[in-house]
UniProtKB/TrEMBL annotation:
The keyword Coiled coil applies. InterPro entries: CHP02680 (IPR013496), P-loop_NTPase (IPR027417). It comes from Actinoallomurus acaciae. Pfam families: SbcC_Walker_B. This is TIGR02680 family protein. Signal peptide: none annotated. Residues 284-304 are annotated as: Disordered.
Length: 706
């Protein structure tokens, strides 16, 4: 800013005050104040703040240059006068344009009549549909024949390969037959094959017979052992039978003697004893069944008592767990994080005791609301880490303004509280406080300050953007002029288009149209639209990257390069179409290479010296490109008059499209610490060996090198 009166020439020598007294806002400003400001601005270098008549200026460490086509007054009144003059000129131009439009309308009507006549004549001409269809069918048949030829060639190659394989297999078979002593004839091999088959069948029959023989021998041995054991048991049984027969005879004799001596009374006694025995057996069976039922009942009663005790313990543990969960849930609600996660949820006062049923209903509501949230270990670890990172960013940002950020851990839960404006707040409270503070500061921003900001954006930023965009469009025109003046050998025509990108800000088209005009010709609505557009970019960048500083935000927000994108178009059927459409490999290489060569040529053309070097360096030039496309690309380098230095593993560059080339072939061998350099020369027709002095003189003449 201007300070005291400068020593030496000042702007007061070439500028004079011209205050619009009709402007109420300028009524309090006097001519002396304006002269004092002009006296504080140096006219040329030498003062802290100065401007020069050639457009250069400096303000402290800042500096730059700018110019206008004509002199003019400074201020809102001057801009309004210039706008009115511009509007008057535009009205005259509009009248002339309207008269021209009327003349063009008359010509258009005449052309319409001629077009109707031509259309009628065209309708009377026979249609060429049949001829076009015949051409299409013929082209299809030619294409089919080429495909069949290719398939026939492939089939011949496959047949040759199979014949080679058969020959190799026959040689290997003959060699194997001679090694093992087998015949090579078909009939002899058939006999051998039949004999081998019979041998295999004999072996197959021998193995089951051997297994059956072994099994039979094992069964015979086991049967002999079993027979020996049976004979031993039979002898023992015979001895026991002889003893039993003797005892039976003795018992029968005793029974006979007792029956003869006892009589009928003994028979009745035996009958009663038998009845008593049966009764006792029945009672014992009934008693055994009753005791079994008693034992089962006692076991069932013990199991029931155990189940009841276990259920009582589980109920008590569940009640304790529920009370503990309610206490933990109430403690978590006391941290305030529940209100942060679900702002609209009605949460009871954590300072009071919570009943079990309402707490369970509240927990179920929270679970239903947060059902879509992933509660796995991985997301939890990432959230914990992110909370720590965000806490550091928040702490750094708040500490710069004298506020502090605390972080406490309650039962594994991180709670962040901020001391802001003397009060402890949570994060939502801080957001509300910051929003209130922002609104308050926005209200404090006066209309005069907003006007200064708008004028800065319009007068300086918009002016700079106008110069940069105009320079970029001029550069694109230079490149397209290079492309037009240097056609390719294939006749393909390309051009570069610098247009708004797909993700360009809204309203960029209108702003670009206004930036093509002078700022003095803008109306109030135009100035407001441009200023609003620039302010929207700054506000969006500030909202997207709040941690970054104003310098970084303004740099990204006002970067006009991100608003635009380059596109390559190709002239096809009289229309410019995108060069990314269907094309051959060579055309795609040319479409990618020609604009780059044109850009380099336009850049070197800015030197203003036709003898200045136009150097381009290419490493592994045109890798993966066929020879025809390589020749065309190297021919383009000669067409654009570029001096190229390139390296390649296989490219020599000896094509008719290249008028001259100096080549250095490098060779080395393992174990030898040296590189052999062999110079060559290409004159457009043949390649010959060259000596190093000739190579150096060729380099001085600006030839191509590899």
């Amino acid at each position: 800013m201007a300070g005291e009166t400068v020593q030496g020439p000042s702007c007061a020598l070439v500028l004079r005050p011209a205050i619009d007294r009709a402007d109420p806002g300028a009524a309090a400003l006097g001519d002396e104040a304006v002269r004092a400001v002009l006296a504080g601005l140096g006219l040329g270098p030498g003062a802290p703040t100065w401007v020069a008549v050639d457009g250069r200026w400096a303000n402290g460490v800042l500096g730059g240059s700018w110019h206008k086509d004509g002199a003019g007054f400074i201020g809102e009144g001057a801009r309004e006068a210039a706008r009115r003059a511009r509007v008057a000129r535009l009205r005259d131009d509009l009248a002339q344009t309207r008269s021209r439009i009327a003349a063009l309308v008359a010509e258009l009507e005449e052309l319409s009549a001629r077009r109707e006549t031509l259309a009628a004549e065209h309708r009377r001409v026979p249609r060429d549909t049949d001829l076009r269809e015949a051409h299409v069918r013929l082209a299809g048949e030619h294409r089919r024949r080429r495909e069949l030829d290719i398939e026939h060639t492939r089939a011949d190659e496959v047949a040759k390969q199979r014949r080679d394989e058969v020959t190799a297999a026959a040689e290997r078979a003959a060699e194997f037959a001679s090694d093992v002593g087998l015949p090579t004839g078909e009939s002899a091999l058939a006999d051998v094959r039949e004999a081998v088959t019979g041998y295999r069948l004999a072996l197959a029959e021998l193995w089951p017979a051997a297994q059956a023989l072994s099994s039979a021998q094992e069964a015979a041995r086991e049967a002999a052992e079993e027979l020996e054991r049976v004979r031993e048991r039979l002898a023992e049984a015979a001895e026991r039978a002889t003893e039993a027969r003797g005892q039976a005879d003795t018992a029968a004799e005793r029974h006979r003697a007792l029956v003869e001596t006892a009589g009928a009374a003994v028979d009745e006694l035996f009958r009663q004893l038998e009845q008593v025995r049966l009764t006792l057996e029945t009672r014992e069976h009934a008693e055994s069944a009753a005791r079994g039922r008693e034992r089962s009942a006692l076991e069932e009663r013990g199991k029931a008592q155990g189940t009841r005790d276990r259920l009582l313990d589980e109920i008590a543990a569940a009640v304790d767990a529920r009370d503990e969960a309610v206490a933990v849930f109430r403690a978590f609600a006391a941290t305030g994080l529940l209100s942060v996660a679900l702002p609209g949820l009605d949460v009871p006062d954590p300072a009071l005791e919570w009943a079990a049923s309402p707490a369970v209903l509240l927990a179920r509501s929270v679970n239903a609301e947060l059902d879509a949230v992933d509660d796995g270990d991985g997301p939890w670890d990432r959230v914990q880490k992110r909370v720590a990172e965000e806490h550091k960013l928040l702490s750094d940002a708040m500490s710069r303004h004298g506020h502090s950020v605390g972080l406490t851990l309650h039962d594994g839960i991180i709670v962040v509280d901020i001391l802001f404006q003397g009060r402890s707040r949570d994060v939502p409270g801080l957001a509300n406080a910051l929003e209130t503070e922002t609104e308050h500061r926005a209200r404090l921003l006066s209309a005069r300050e907003r006007e200064i900001l708008e004028n800065h954006l319009l007068n300086e930023v918009a002016g700079t953007l106008q110069e940069l965009i105009a320079a970029a469009e001029d550069e694109v025109r230079e490149m397209n002029a290079e492309l037009t003046s240097r056609p390719t050998s294939t006749g393909m025509r390309l051009r570069l288009v610098w247009k708004p990108a797909k993700d360009a800000p809204d309203g960029l088209e209108r702003v670009r149209e206004k930036l093509r005009q002078t700022i003095d010709a803008w109306s109030v609505d135009d100035r407001a639209a441009v200023g609003r557009f620039l302010q929207e970019q700054i506000a969006r960048e500030h909202a997207d990257n709040p941690p970054s500083g104003w310098t970084e935000q303004l740099t990204r927000a006002l970067d006009y390069r991100s608003w635009h994108a380059f596109a390559i178009q190709r002239l096809q059927d009289g229309q410019w179409r995108p060069a990314t459409g269907p094309a051959s490999g060579g055309e795609r290489v040319l479409a990618a290479s020609v604009p780059l060569f044109a850009a380099a040529s336009a850049h070197y053309k800015s030197a203003g010296n036709p003898h200045a070097p136009r150097l381009v360096a290419l490493d592994e030039a045109f890798a993966g490109v066929d020879d025809d496309s390589r020749a065309k690309c190297l021919g383009l380098l000669a067409t654009f008059d570029m001096d190229v230095v390139m390296t390649s593993e296989r490219e020599w560059g000896c094509y008719p499209q290249v008028p001259g080339l100096s080549i250095c072939q490098l060779s080395r061998r393992d174990g030898i610490d040296a590189v052999l350099v062999t110079p060559w020369r290409w004159d457009g027709r043949e390649r010959v060996r060259a000596d190093l002095p000739e190579l150096e003189s060729a380099a001085g003449q600006g030839d191509l090198f590899e």
